[in-house]
Amino acid sequence: MSTGTGSGRNTATWRNWAGNVTARPAREVTPASVGEVSAALRRAKDDGLKVKPVGSGHSFTAAAVTDGVLIRPDLLTGIRGIDRAAGTVTVGAGTPLKRLNAALAREGLSLTNMGDIMEQTVSGAVSTGTHGTGRESASIAAQITALELVTADGTVLTCSAEENPEVFAAARVGLGALGVITAITFAVEPIFFLTAREEPMTFDKVTDDFDALVTENEHFEFYWFPHTGNCTTKRNNRSPGPAEPPGRISAFVEDELLSNGLFQVVNSLGRAVPAAIPGIARISSKALSARTYTDIPYKVFTSPRRVRFMEMEYAVPRAALVPALRELRAMVDRSRLRISFPVEVRTAPADDMALSTASGRESAYIAVHMYRGTPYQAYFAAAERIFTAHEGRPHWGKVHTRDAEYFAKAYPRFGEFTALRDRLDPDRLFGNAYLRRVLGD
C-alpha cells in the first residue's frame, strides 16, 4: 500500500466486513492531508482512473468498489479541534467512531445519539446514513454542523448551513458521489448518563403500544424473534446518574455469551439444520432477561457485534411501521423460511438532508438479517416487497435492489441531489456500478 500521493502499486483484493463485496483497485493511496487528497484526485483524473474513498468496509453494498484508485483515510484521523463555546468537535474523516466516542468521553463530551455499532469511520457512517434510534435526536449525519469536501477537480469546499449550504444539504449523506470528505464537525454536548431498561415483551403488546413506547422514551427499540411471539425491548432515557453499569457476570452473560458466543453457535447450528431454527428461536428469545443499568452514552447505545451477517434495512413512515411489521410476521409464518436472526426496529425524527432515509418524514426502521453463509435472497426479496409497498427507503449501506427510478419517486429532493452531482462531478470521477444504479448516469 502506498502512503501519500505516491505511485502506489497493484493491490490485493479488498473485501467488506460481511465478505459479500470485493474489489481489486489499480492502486491504493493513503493521503495524510487535504492537499494530498487533492493531488491524488488530480493524478487519478490524468490517468483516466475512477476514485473511491473507503472506510471500514462495514457497508453491505458495493458503494466503495472501484477498479481505479482506492483512497484509504487511515491517516486522516483524530480530533482537529474542540470548540466548547460552540459545542462542536472537528475530526478527521477516517476517525473510527469508537475512537471518537472514547476521545470525547475523555474530554467530558458526547454525541447526542449514535448507532449500535461503532466500528465504522465517521465519513463512512455519515455517507451511508448510519443511525440509531431516537424520539427527537436523529442520525449521526444530522449532528454534523460542517464538513470539508474535496471535489473532483481537487477543490476544497467548506460546507455548512451558512457556507455552500446546497452542498451541505446533500453531502452529509452523499454516498461518496460528490467528493471525498476529509473532515467533519459534529455538534456535541457535555457528557451525560443514560439509564437503559431492557425487558422481554410480547409481539402483540409491543406493536399495540408502539406509539406510546416511542412517545414516552427518548430512545426506544426492540427486536422480534421470527417464529415466535416474543420480543426484547430497550428504553434509553437520560438520568442524573451515577453510573451503574451491568455487573461483570451479567455483562459477560448478556453481551458476550448470549449475544455473541452462544448466538454464534446457535446460528451455525441453524445453518446446518434449518428445521431446528423455530425451536431454537423459542428458547433463545426467552434467554435474555430483564435488566436495568446506567452509564455514559456510548456504553449504552453501542454493543459488540462479532457474529457476522447480511442485512437489509428499510425506513418506512412511522405510521406504517406496525402494519408493515405485522405483514412481515405473517409472511414468515406462512413461508418455509427459517430465520435465526431477530428483526430490529428503531425510529428517527424527520430531518432536512436530501438523501437521508428520514428526509422530510418521521420514520421507523425495520432491519432483517441472515447469518453469513446462509441463503438470504428469498427472505430479503419477500421483505423488500412489503417495505416498498409502504413507501420504504432502503438504508444506503445495506442490501437492497432499488434503482434511480424508484428513488426519484421516494425522495422529493432526489433531483436536487443529482443536479448537484452533475455540477460537482460531471465526468463521474467518483462513479461506480452501485452509484450508476441508485443515482442514474
Task: Give the biggest beta sheet.
Answer: 8 strands, antiparallel
How much helicity do the residues have?
A: 25-40%
CA radius of gyration:
21 Å
Judged by helices, strands and strand pairing, the structural class is alpha+beta
Unreliable stretches, pLDDT < 50, 5 or more residues?
1-7
Averaging pLDDT over every residue, what do you get?
Answer: 92
Please characterize this protein's 3D structure.
With 441 residues, the protein is an alpha+beta fold. Helix content is 32%, strand content 24%. Strands 16-13-15-14-18-19-17-20 form an 8-stranded antiparallel β-sheet. The protein has a 5-stranded antiparallel β-sheet with strand order 6-7-11-9-10. The longest helix has 25 residues. It is globular and about 60 Å long. The N terminus is likely disordered.
Concise summary:
The chain is of the alpha+beta class and 441 residues long. 32% of the residues lie in helices and 24% in strands.
Summarize the SSE layout with pairings.
Layout: E1 14-15, E2 22-23, E3 27-29, H1 34-46, E4 51-53, E5 69-71, E6 79-83, E7 88-92, H2 97-106, E8 109-110, H3 122-127, E9 144-150, E10 156-160, H4 165-171, E11 180-187, E12 189-190, E13 193-202, H5 203-208, H6 210-216, E14 219-224, E15 230-239, H7 248-272, H8 277-284, E16 291-295, H9 297-301, E17 309-317, H10 321-334, E18 343-348, E19 363-371, H11 377-389, E20 393-394, H12 404-410, H13 414-424, H14 433-439
Helix pairs in contact: 10-11, 12-14
